Amino acid sequence: MSARAPRPYADPYVAGVGLGLVLVAAYVLVGRGLGASGAFATAAAVAVDASGSAAARGNTFFADHLAGGLLGDWLVVELLGVVLGGFASAALAGRLRVAVERGPNAAAGARLALALGGGATMGAGAVLARGCTSGQALTGGALLSVGSWTFVAGAFGAAYAAARLVRRTWT
Amino acid sequence: MTAPFLDSGASALGAALGIGVAFGWCLERAGLGSARKLVGQFYLTDLTVFKVMFSAIVTAMLGAFWLGRLGMLDLSRVYVPETYLLPQLAGGATFGVGFALAGLCPGTSCVAAATGRIDGAAVVAGVFLGVLGTGVALPRLQSIYLATPRGVDTLPSALGVPYGVVVLGVVALALAGFVVAERIERLGDRGSGLGDRERPDDRVPSPDPRLTGAQRG
Question: Most CB atoms closer than 10 Å: which of A80, B41, B136, B216?
């Protein structure tokens, strides 16, 4: 193995316990958990508001996400932290690399199209479910919310079914 | 003084940045900035997602439970997302389809993008467009969005079982899940794993990264 080879990932249980402690720190410090899709909702609300389109007026979903502006929103600042933390961790482990990650037989264009389409589908689901893997599965799951565990069941059930259709992207 | 301490303002935003950095760090260390590693969950070749998520849920659940029981954390002031059964089941299923197609979730897509993965940036763009479009359409989806509201509803109250018993049950379930996950991965090691165009040397039999704890990053 050359000196420039990326270092191996951490043990998943160690990383998971670390992640759980971060979540506890969030409960203790600010009385809320982690999130990701909520930051996208604020970004979307700010974009719609700035466009001045009629879609913004009377839309309570966007209005609810506009309260503090973009950089006054807790989840937006938290997600900027995620970007910084992820970058720093990868940089220190020699894991930064510009690439389209995909299987050996997949075309980059197909992978990017699935990434964009899959992302949009997740965005739709996260709005309906009021959160994603961070806000519902992790945060609400650890607080034993019924809706969060319902989300987990729906998400993983559907993901296993859908993954069969795109296996060739990865093999 | 009982936690939580910061309700709003600049100090809460400072905490947001620190908590986010730690969150992103943990996701990247676990390998969850990599879609190829993440989708191993759905093809049963690499169950890192399950192991990381459930160790995190169990840790945070035990932390919240014991800090609450010891009177150090006022759980009534910790925000629990409200339950709307039908939209959360339907939204969860929709989310799951997108998750399988994209190979990343909204949080991990930010880590993937931050570490140079262009597919991660495409997922970030997709999530933004999906949230934007669904947000615009939401006034016409109110009958689904607001269906089956149950307010703040937790498993102990829904099942009529004491908090501590549910906590114990989730711990037992997670431990059993970890045992099964390790078995599935060992069975999978004998079959074919997922390929990788970017790092073909990963496919050469090499020391299991899980066993090389000394090299842990």
Answer: B41
